[in-house]
Backbone:
């Protein structure tokens, strides 16, 4: 019989947990993954609603997500699972920004100079803003919010409305007046100011569970690991007695039962996704279209991405007035905004609003200063909220899982 003490347990089969499990399995470690839900993916997964399979949100990847892309290749996710587009932000009202095909940072600077709907002064201010960040190696005062940073560099006007504020909300899922300027600068460093392909938009063409967690489960199972869904863990001490190491990869709101000393009063930010099903002939002029006014920030053409023709996903990130609406009211508001932007649409055949009220931890200065270091031997923490430099994204999640696995693989320290 196999000695279970040599196995490692991973609690949670989201992106962080499966990144940890894949890293361990690649090194020949037998892994047992315990997931409370019915499918892997955590806060980025496939769900069933009224007999329809939908993602619980619309996620965007970028070319700078090096660890996630590496692990996707490792577990044999096909390249066509993502639609890769050079960075281009298009809005229904005509604003457009596109990074030019030039070596970094010329592509970004050229894109800023040619962006539409900006005055010449605004274009040069934007170039100077990026120049300031590059000159300072993208380090800013730790006390600043994103709004503070934008105001200091005259970036809170038209370009803030169309570019910087939407990028902040999309990447950090936190309003600019609360979001950490340093984390925002880190995102700009690795994406807009990174290598030419780092800023590419990568839009999923398969559901979020199939994008990585399910292939990762198959990878682990082929190497002798075990995946248990519907397995809720409440007793960490019992797990620690059974396995030589335990990686806790659950959301912060789930820490109270497992690691109460780390279950602080986290601030959360929501993501609302409203699916609107129109006739199959309805499509957007671009797979990802910005809406500059109202509640909806981005609309995604699921027909162009996943083949679900006529289906539009409207995304509203971070807190706001929309949280006061009933779901049918919110769906109606999304339809009105979309119809106004596109010049008229028929009524949707059906709609579905998915509200992830604790989609991410608020990416504030205070959150990034928390000490989340583990003090229990053989227990390691993973999750997008644990990354010291990145916002709570899929990339932060997999980075944290890889780090936790590497700690679990390291030989224990012995007293001298």
Residues:
């Amino acid at each position: 019989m196999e000695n279970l003490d040599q196995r490692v347990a991973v609690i949670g089969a989201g992106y962080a947990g499966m990144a940890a499990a894949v890293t361990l399995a690649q090194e020949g470690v037998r892994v047992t993954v315990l997931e409370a839900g019915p499918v892997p993916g955590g806060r980025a997964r496939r769900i069933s609603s009224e007999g329809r399979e939908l993602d619980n949100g619309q996620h965007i990847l970028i070319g700078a997500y090096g660890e996630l892309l590496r692990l996707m290749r490792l577990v044999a996710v096909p390249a066509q699972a993502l639609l890769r587009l050079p960075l281009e932000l298009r809005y229904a009202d005509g604003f457009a920004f596109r990074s030019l095909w030039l070596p970094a940072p010329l592509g970004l600077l050229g894109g800023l100079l040619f962006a539409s709907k900006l005055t010449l002064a605004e274009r040069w201010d934007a170039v100077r803003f990026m120049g300031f960040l590059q000159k300072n190696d993208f380090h800013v005062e730790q006390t600043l919010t994103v709004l503070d940073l934008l105001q200091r560099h005259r970036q809170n006007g038209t370009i803030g409305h169309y570019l910087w504020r939407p990028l902040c909300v999309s990447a950090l899922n936190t309003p600019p007046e609360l979001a950490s300027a340093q984390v925002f600068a880190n995102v700009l460093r690795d994406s807009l100011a990174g290598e030419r392909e780092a800023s590419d938009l990568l839009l999923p063409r398969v559901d979020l569970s199939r994008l990585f967690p399910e292939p990762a489960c198959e990878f682990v199972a082929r190497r002798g690991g075990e995946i248990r869904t519907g397995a809720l863990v409440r007793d960490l001490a019992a797990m620690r007695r059974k396995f030589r190491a335990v990686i806790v990869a659950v959301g912060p709101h789930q820490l109270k039962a497992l690691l109460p000393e780390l279950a602080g009063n986290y601030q959360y930010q929501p993501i609302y996704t409203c699916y609107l099903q129109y006739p199959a002939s309805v499509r957007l002029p671009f797979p990802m279209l910005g809406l500059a006014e109202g509640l909806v920030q981005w609309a995604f053409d699921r027909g162009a991405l996943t083949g679900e023709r006529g289906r539009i996903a409207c995304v509203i990130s971070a807190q706001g007035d929309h949280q006061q609406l009933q779901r049918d009211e919110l769906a109606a508001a999304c339809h009105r905004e979309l119809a106004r932007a596109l010049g008229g649409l028929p009524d949707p055949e059906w709609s579905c609003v998915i509200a992830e009220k604790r989609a991410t931890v608020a990416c504030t200065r205070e959150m990034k200063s928390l000490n989340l270091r583990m003090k229990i031997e053989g227990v390691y923490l993973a999750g997008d909220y644990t990354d010291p430099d990145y916002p709570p994204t899929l990339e932060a999640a997999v980075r944290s899982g890889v780090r936790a696995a590497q700690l679990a693989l390291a030989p224990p320290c012995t007293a001298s």
